[in-house]
């Protein structure tokens, strides 16, 4: 599980139930402002195609825990790149853990089930072994490898 204190709890009716002070600070909102946002305001991306990436991954994973990155537009207009971990609770609510991502806000959105993170990490490691170290292809595969390794370690860090 992700170790973070920036958490948002959303009810089965899509209404924000709770948010920690760290989540509100990260998003630059008060709890009242967060609750007053219209549906879809906190979509990870402004464009429909990018939002569909998240929705497809979430549904494709059977609403199993999902990890990924995306960009949100804050109320002041600035863009913020976030990493998230999201899962459904037994009571129908959805819990979301957020943290700021070191990625560029222009990076495409990513969304993976936790099992796929491990599978993708292993696949990236295998691909690295087949490429010439230092080549452009190797550098791209190495970046993927580091991303998935850090995501898996972050998710599996029990605390």
Provide structural commentary.
The protein is of the alpha+beta class. It has a domain at 7-113: 2-Layer Sandwich (Beta-Lactamase). Helix content is 40%, strand content 23%. It has five helices and six strands. The chain has helices at 21-27, 31-36, 48-60, 114-130, 136-156, and strands spanning 7-10, 16-19, 66-73, 79-88, 94-100, 110-113. The chain has a six-stranded antiparallel beta sheet with strand order 2-1-5-4-3-6. Helix 4 (114-130) packs antiparallel against helix 5. The chain is globular, with a radius of gyration of 16 Å.
- Rg is 16 Å
Query: Going by CATH, what is the homologous superfamily of the domain at 7-113?
Result: PAS domain
Question: Count the strands?
Answer: 6
Poorly predicted parts? none
Order of helices and strands: EEHHHEEEEHH
Helix content: 40-55%
Termini distance? 8 Å
CATH topology-level name of the domain at 7-113: Beta-Lactamase
> For the report, how would you describe the main beta sheet?
6 strands, antiparallel
The CATH class of the domain at 7-113 turns out to be Alpha Beta
| CATH architecture group name of the domain at 7-113 | 2-Layer Sandwich
Strand order of the largest sheet: 2-1-5-4-3-6
Helices, by number, come to 5
Shape: globular
Approximate strand percentage: 15-25%
Based on secondary structure, the structural category is alpha+beta
Q: Look at the structure and give the mean pLDDT.
A: 78
């Amino acid at each position: 599980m992700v170790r973070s204190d920036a958490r948002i709890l959303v009810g089965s009716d899509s209404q924000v139930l709770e948010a920690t002070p760290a989540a509100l600070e990260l998003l630059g909102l008060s709890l009242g402002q967060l609750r007053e946002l219209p549906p879809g305001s906190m979509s990870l991306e402004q464009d429909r195609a990018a939002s569909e990436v998240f929705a497809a991954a979430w549904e494709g994973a059977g609403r199993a825990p999902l990890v990924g990155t995306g960009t949100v537009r804050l109320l002041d207009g600035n863009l913020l790149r976030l990493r998230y971990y999201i899962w459904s609770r037994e009571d129908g609510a959805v819990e979301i853990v957020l943290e700021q991502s070191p990625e560029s806000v222009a990076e495409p959105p990513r969304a993976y089930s936790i099992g796929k993170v491990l599978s993708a990490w292993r696949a990236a490691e295998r691909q690295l072994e087949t490429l010439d170290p230092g080549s452009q292809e190797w550098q791209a595969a190495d970046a993927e490898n580091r991303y998935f390794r850090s995501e898996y370690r972050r998710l599996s860090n029990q605390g």
